[in-house]
Specification:
Layout (H helix, E strand, L loop, with lengths): L1 H9 L3 H10 L11 E2 L9 E2 L5 E6 L4 H14 L4 E5 L3 H9 L5 E4 L13 H9 L3 E16 L7 E2 L1 H8 L9 H6 L11 E5 L4 H13 L17 E3 L1 H10 L4 E6 H6 L3 E2 L1 E3 L4 E2 L3 H9 L2 E2 L8 E2 L13 E9 L5 H14 L2 H6 L10 H12 L3
Helix pairs in contact: 1-2, 1-3, 2-3
């Protein structure tokens, strides 16, 4: 699994992860539709449907996590083919609506607001032939990641963070940053903010945070398209690598990308003290989220302005958006099999190794129940 993990993280899509998993498995094994023994880390037996083949698109934020899940799934269900293209949440939703994907990964929920007389919720239901459900599967902390030589444990608050990304604070030794970091020697290096140039659920969640926690400074409406300042780079890989190669660089990116690129990660002070990004601090924030859907539609409403002690406030939840009743029963069984594995306790726990926080047990139980109800 360690070999699979490192190979998967280097891949741009799950096509590579699938091929690597096949190379590391017993070529004589076949998927027979039997109940398979669980691989290490899965936490549950897997029902391996015959001729397993799925195509999904969407969130790049969950790419490393879903690669982990597919690699472990294939340890038991040899020959299973799952192609995940991490081309962004917006693209994933469009693909689901166009019936070009079996499910979509998205860091934002389907829009209920009408645009040209249509809504994403209605369009998805029409494509599915049944209501589409949001299943929170990956908790992706958003790191404010930076590259400032000699500065470790940087502390930022919402207002200063917003001003950095609006370019009203332009050097690292600005008095507003220094006031949050007493005793730290800050260089006069220019700040170089980078943002996602593609439509991104990460951007939407990050701007949700800025709008909620620093409303007098960040006045733009949250959106998948960036409305601040800086230099755009495509995908999470793009912004993280740009910061790695730029002295004074800063960006917002999923924790896993910040870790992979060995970037500094700011501690965030929402008003109750600086909070380090850890699985525990993120889990505390997710547990405080409110349900925003009905029945098995598990939309969540995150409190980005929380002042709860020890809760890391900048995070996103990636949903797998699925049809509640698939038009193709065989395809529906395949989706159900994979998602049940993805949501299992041990697979979720294993995601910590690649920069994600596992779903809290109470939420994971609801997700498991919703998956069991899929048809």
């Amino acid at each position: 699994m360690k070999t699979l993990r490192m190979a998967a993280l280097a891949s741009l899509t799950l096509v590579g992860a699938v091929a690597l998993a096949g190379c590391g498995s017993d070529d004589n094994r076949v998927s027979t539709g039997r109940q398979g023994a669980a691989p290490a880390g899965s936490g549950a037996a897997i029902d391996c449907p015959p001729d397993m083949s799925l195509t999904a698109q969407g969130s790049s934020a969950q790419k490393n996590a879903i690669q982990e899940a597919i690699a472990s799934y294939q340890d038991t269900c040899a020959g299973a083919k799952i192609d995940y293209n991490g081309n962004g949440s917006g693209a994933g939703i469009k693909a689901l609506i166009a019936d070009q994907a079996d499910f979509a990964g998205s860091d934002s929920t389907l829009k209920i607001e009408s645009e040209d007389g249509k809504t994403e919720v209605d369009d998805a239901a029409k494509a599915c032939g049944s209501p589409a459900l949001h299943l929170p599967m990956v908790t992706g902390p958003i790191a404010v990641a930076y590259n400032v030589q000699g500065v470790d444990g940087l502390i930022l608050d919402p207002d200063v963070t917003a001003k950095i990304f609006l370019r009203t604070i332009v050097t690292w030794n600005d008095p507003a940053i220094a006031a949050l970091n007493p005793g730290v020697t800050l260089p006069a290096t220019p700040i170089k903010p980078f943002f996602r140039s593609d439509e991104s659920g990460t951007t939407e969640n990050f701007t949700e945070y800025l709008a909620a926690a620093a409303p007098t400074t960040w006045t733009a409406q949250p959106d998948k398209a960036w409305t601040g300042k800086g230099e755009g780079k495509p995908k999470s890989d793009g912004v993280a690598q740009a910061v790695k190669g730029s002295a004074g660089g800063i960006t917002y990116a999923e924790w896993s990308y910040a870790k992979d690129n060995q970037l500094g990660i700011a501690r965030i002070d929402n008003g109750a003290g600086a909070v380090e990004l850890t699985p525990e601090s993120v889990g505390k924030a997710v547990t405080a989220a409110k349900a925003d859907g009905a029945g098995n539609d598990l939309r969540l409403k995150l409190d980005y302005s929380t002042k709860e002690v020890g809760a890391y406030p900048i995070l996103l939840v990636t949903y797998e958006i699925v049809c509640s009743q698939n038009k193709d029963a065989t395809r529906g069984a395949q989706i159900k099999s994979f998602l049940k594995h993805f949501a299992s306790r041990d697979v979720q726990a294993g995601l910590e190794e690649v920069g994600y926080a596992p779903l809290p047990d109470a939420l994971r139980a609801k997700v498991d129940s919703a998956i069991n109800a899929l048809q």
